[in-house]
Amino acid sequence: MISKNRVKQIQFLHQKKFREQNKLFLAEGIKTVKELIASRPEVIEELFATVDFIKENEPLLKKNRIGFSEISEKELGQISSQTTPNQVLAVCRFFEEGDYSFDFEKNFSLYLDDIRDPGNFGTIIRMADWFGISTIFCSPSSCELYNNKVIQATMGAFMRVKVVYLPLNEVMDKNKPAKIYGAVLNGKNLFKEKLEPGLILIGNEANGINKENLELINAPLTIPSHSNNGTESLNAAMATSIIVSEFFRQICV
Amino acid sequence: MISKNRVKQIQFLHQKKFREQNKLFLAEGIKTVKELIASRPEVIEELFATVDFIKENEPLLKKNRIGFSEISEKELGQISSQTTPNQVLAVCRFFEEGDYSFDFEKNFSLYLDDIRDPGNFGTIIRMADWFGISTIFCSPSSCELYNNKVIQATMGAFMRVKVVYLPLNEVMDKNKPAKIYGAVLNGKNLFKEKLEPGLILIGNEANGINKENLELINAPLTIPSHSNNGTESLNAAMATSIIVSEFFRQICV
Predict the structure, then answer these.
(1) Cβ-count burial of A237 within 10 angstroms (0-12 exposed, 13-18 middle, 19+ buried)?
(2) Of A129, A130, B110, B243, which shows the fewest CB atoms inside 10 Å?
(3) What's the whole-model pTM score?
(4) What is the pLDDT of residues A143-154, one digit of tens each?
């Protein structure tokens, strides 16, 4: 059971404004929530689940002292942000921001300059996790991490990759990367450069990298295309995955 | 002006069933439709546009003998499949299927085995175009090319990349690729293999490659991940882009 009032409160968390006011967000689905219980149980404020989920996971919930309420499929549908809700929804507290130092002498990371599409953003976080990038940086105007679509698209990676929102100059003041790469239209061939640890700037889906930030790039890169084709650009998330995988190949394999 | 009856007919084309019955699909937005007029005017059956589009493009439309109707923003909103319609909608005829031979001795291509997500499918077509893949193959169960979301996600690449739906054995009977690569969980390290022209199998988002097709792979590949991470997989479109870019790097750069 869930009260009408609680339903409303949770529905409010579908909106950014209320997430930020309450410092709460939603994580949904069996896989994501079970991972959350295993790796970050401290962020779960309350859990709503159908009888199937509870039957299966009651010992786990009790062991981790997670408060839960059994609700019907219909009630889950009311509070869920998903078109096909999957047994469980967790109301979670925002992560602690904590330290954002990063060793750019040994590792590479991303700076997402005003990325906007939640699906792109979420799959980039998932991909960063795959390639072992522990922290990624975003401009303050970028898409919100706790957006429901972002959380779901990360497939759990939001628990492992730290996402830090900071103006680029503050990232640089603090961490002093020597190499500032940037994905641009007329840079050097990604596949012919010797890539080193550093920070990789990725621009907005429509407008690319902000002009001020462009000037800070000291190693512009371009993904070469087949000559004479008509496609002018790649999807931002796909371009990012191609660039990151090439850094990984050269530096980590 | 557009009649109520025509509005209904076009709205029906938002559904796969009616697209297939009529062999018609919709292409929308200034950029996509202008590219279509420039490169494939013969597929446009009828064009609906607001006054702004017509003012700007009337000579182009007349030169290409494209029938058009001026409609209001409101009318465009009624027939559009987009949340933010952009001046123009074209009703188009399905492309001719034509020949599907492919020279696997010189080139590489993709076989998408039951890809389902329109966004993934569309960005894969866009990426294939970027890297100069002229034809891609899909299992008959895969997502429909003429789905509105696919068409929009390709950013025009659907006009340049031929998409052929065929069971894998028919692709092989006809084109006899020597190398059948497949993206699997326990294959050889993508970055350490010497890659050659051939066919690359990409599986379904949730279930991977169909069991029958798995057996036809003679060169299984895996994108290496950072050790000890928690992410079990990459988004299907991102994994495809990483694999294709590595083939491109080794074979074409």
Answers:
(1) buried
(2) B243
(3) 0.93
(4) 999 999 999 999
